[in-house]
Write a structure and sequence with these properties.
By secondary structure, the chain is mostly helical. It contains ten helices and no strands. The protein is globular. 49% of the residues are buried.
């Protein structure tokens, strides 16, 4: 069965990056670069959140709240998703990224060249996707209770092992 990284790549294939580009007001290349930087950074921050007292429960609950979003990914990334996503996106980021939210935003902005507001919108769109993928993996028994942090770290390590620009190359190949 595919790991978290493979599942995220699959969800972010096709027109997903193009729709995300239009949503955040950035060109396609910058958005690809931002997604390539954001995925491992988000997975790592989420893993650290899961390792905190009560963190795994917070992430598991957030994942369950977003479980049904994968069937509507194009609308979500294009900014036409469920009405509550834009309103809760910022709060969602602070819940899943914890005190690493600013660090992740800064890292993605530096790597990609996106403006801070574009970076935040990108992360607000990607967080529900990552949570929905987590929910799917949990419901399929791929992540056992107490194993969320480990699964997130494996996803982050896989993205980092792809090498500099490795995830960008993987995203580009899927397009």
């Amino acid at each position: 069965m595919p790991g978290l990284l493979d599942s995220l790549r699959q969800e972010l294939s096709g027109n997903a990056v193009q729709q995300l580009s239009a949503n955040i007001g950035a060109d396609h290349q910058m958005t690809q670069s931002a997604v390539a930087a954001a995925v491992p950074a988000m997975l790592g921050a989420m893993a650290q959140t899961a390792q905190q007292p009560g963190g795994e429960t917070v992430l598991a609950q957030a994942a369950e709240q977003h479980a049904g979003l994968l069937g509507n990914i194009g609308s979500l990334l294009g900014g036409r998703g469920p009405a509550d996503v834009p309103a809760t996106g910022g709060g969602l980021l602070s819940r899943v990224l914890g005190d690493r939210q600013e660090q992740v935003q800064s890292q993605v902005a530096q790597t990609s060249g996106l403006a801070p507001d574009q970076t935040k919108r990108l992360l607000m769109a990607l967080a529900p996707v990552a949570l929905a993928v987590l929910a799917r993996h949990r419901s399929q028994g791929q992540i056992q209770p107490g194993g969320l942090a480990g699964a997130l770290l494996q996803g982050q390590n896989a993205a980092q092992q792809a090498g500099p620009g490795g995830l960008l190359g993987l995203v580009e190949r899927k397009l």
